[in-house]
UDP-N-acetylglucosamine 1-carboxyvinyltransferase (Roseovarius halotolerans), 422 residues
Amino acid sequence: MDSIIVTGNGPLKGQIPIAGAKNACLTLMPATLLSDEPLTLTNAPRLSDIKTMSALLESLGAEVSQLQDGKVLVMSSHALSSHVADYDIVRKMRASILVLGPMLARDGHAVVSLPGGCAIGARPVDLHLRALEAMGAELELKEGYVHAKAPNGLKGGTVDFPLVSVGATENALMAATLAKGTTVLKNAAREPEIVDLADCLRRMGAQIEGDGTGTITIQGVDRLGGATHPVVADRIELGTYMLAPAICGGEVECLGGRINLVGAFCEKLDAAGIDVSETDKGIKVSRKNGRVKSVDVTTEPFPGFPTDLQAQMMALMCTADGTSVLEEKIFENRFMHAPELMRMGAHIDVHGGTATVTGVERLKGAPVMATDLRASVSLILAGLAAEGETIVNRVYHLDRGYESVEEKLGNVGARIERVSGQ
Ligand code: UD1
């Protein structure tokens, strides 16, 4: 298993290009199942999760070609040869559940394994299922699989989500595009990935209004066509790299980033004393002198502070001047990075969904273990600011969501290298 070795050093300087969003791409790819014409995605990130989704789509009979070194994906789902999303693929990645809505909407039946993914809490899929039931689907859970049927096709309905779910909104949105009549999704997720999916579906011929707000209205159409769509920039990769100069000083411009993707996060950086400004090419972040100030953070659905940046923000707070309280409101088991940061000398007290971090002057490098995708990158960020060498083990988590991390950070002056393991 590969490891990443980071040696703490001085300020960073330069530019980091931001890739297309993993989470957007993972929901755009299953949209190919809605049409028998090709869907082309440009600005796709080159990540292992994308390969997993390609393998899943191929197992259903779709053709997926990667062009331009993986930056362009051309998918074609002329006819599906299988409607079973097998446990062996689905267990690797929770986003696999997103093939359920499209397959059901197109062909009236689908069998999808219940998902796995990052170990950050129970993460059920009840909201996905409830939404499809509201559109007339008949569902049965048998031996770890969801068996879904809609023999006469899905029908428009009203779905009132009891809590905001990105994935359930995406599944329902895709399914509703081919349902008969009008579907209204209330308390829908407002994440930029939802807007990106709606944009792509509109290019394919779908009739959707209200994406980006809590109520999305979809007028079903008989069929969707092909389209070419650029994947939106990855706001989580953006926020992660914005934290690099915040943690170890210097000035970095994140190319392709926009403030509207990371509004609440920018406000926290500002409160911590970090300079953030939008340029014509992206977002420039700089930290001049002195320690950052402690700030409190509560994770919330968009436009609130994203849970996917909580671990990285905690890494920043580990060396802040003062005490900060980080409240995790989205996932119940998302502080697994805390004990690892404490191995590096951080002072963190975790009680339930609250972590209290008392900043220290400097962290010390140590061997640490990546426990999930965002946790692994938080340890790399912490390593950038630590004295000595930090060895981050189990980096396969990182490769699920960060493209060329060593190269991107190395190019702005970080001392970081990958060591191949057995
Ligand atoms: C997506 C993102 C993930 C991010 C999360 C929250 C992808 C591929 N992943 O995950 O990176 O951390 O949004 O921004 O886009 N829930 C239920 N029942 C359900 C579905 C969700 O109770 O059927 C709960 C979850 O356990 C969680 C909360 O709802 O507590 C939000 O989860 P959700 O927004 O669905 O996350 P994902 O779409 O899985």
Remarks:
- Residues 12 and 250 are 5 Å apart (CA to CA).
